[in-house]
Recover the amino acids of this structure.
């Protein structure tokens, strides 16, 4: 699959989110929305009301990444609101199969997120229940962290487990011009980039450059 870029608005200006989403609309594939509850991760960010507001203005589908304590309760509401993709964390979900199926039934792509220290192999049997597997390449909670190279072998193992299934492999955390090629070579095809996009003078051009790097690396 051709690489896809999902800029994270965690690094955008929260006072002008609609404008910052519009800036990358012609270059990106998704808008990555990090939902954090200050329980599952040590940070508090955006919630359902902000997602509902963004859905009214965004020309791109929303890629909602729920880093929250009770995704079984809340995830379906994001899908029902109109999010294009909703990812729950394996470490937090109590009934992942039911929740993933509910997300799909509401019309969104269902994603399963895994933290850096969580092995991917125990979740192989869930690959048929998801549309995307998200591997965290930093400890979740804050933007601007340094990429964890230790996760790259897991990316390769995940790609092997996915095989020919129609499941996207997303990496999230520390993705930049310095790291995206390693991620693509390891098998990732969806890339979340926050600081690398919104910290650039021209966010849209930053997205285009990241896409070009990922395409070249995937071709190799």
């Amino acid at each position: 699959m051709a690489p896809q870029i999902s800029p994270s608005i965690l690094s955008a200006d929260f006072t002008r989110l609609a404008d910052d989403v519009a800036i990358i609309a012609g270059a990106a594939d998704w808008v990555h929305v990090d939902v954090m509850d200050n329980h599952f991760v040590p940070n508090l960010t955006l919630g359902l009301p902000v997602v509902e507001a963004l859905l009214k203005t965004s020309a791109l589908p929303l890629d909602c990444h729920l880093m929250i304590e009770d995704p079984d309760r809340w995830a379906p509401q994001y899908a029902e609101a109109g999010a294009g993709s909703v990812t729950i964390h394996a470490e937090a979900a109590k009934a992942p199969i039911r929740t993933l199926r509910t997300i799909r039934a509401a019309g969104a792509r269902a994603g399963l997120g895994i933290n850096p220290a969580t092995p991917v192999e125990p979740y192989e049997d869930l690959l048929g229940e998801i549309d995307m597997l998200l591997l965290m390449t930093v400890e979740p909670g804050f933007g601007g962290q340094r990429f964890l190279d230790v996760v790259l072998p897991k990316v390769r193992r995940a790609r092997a487990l996915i095989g020919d299934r129609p499941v996207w492999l997303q990496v999230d955390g520390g993705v930049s011009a310095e790291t995206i090629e390693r991620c693509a070579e390891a098998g990732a095809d969806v890339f979340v980039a926050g600081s690398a996009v919104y910290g650039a003078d021209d966010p849209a051009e930053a997205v285009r450059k990241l896409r070009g790097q990922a395409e070249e690396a995937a071709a190799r």
Remarks:
- The longest strand covers residues 31-36.
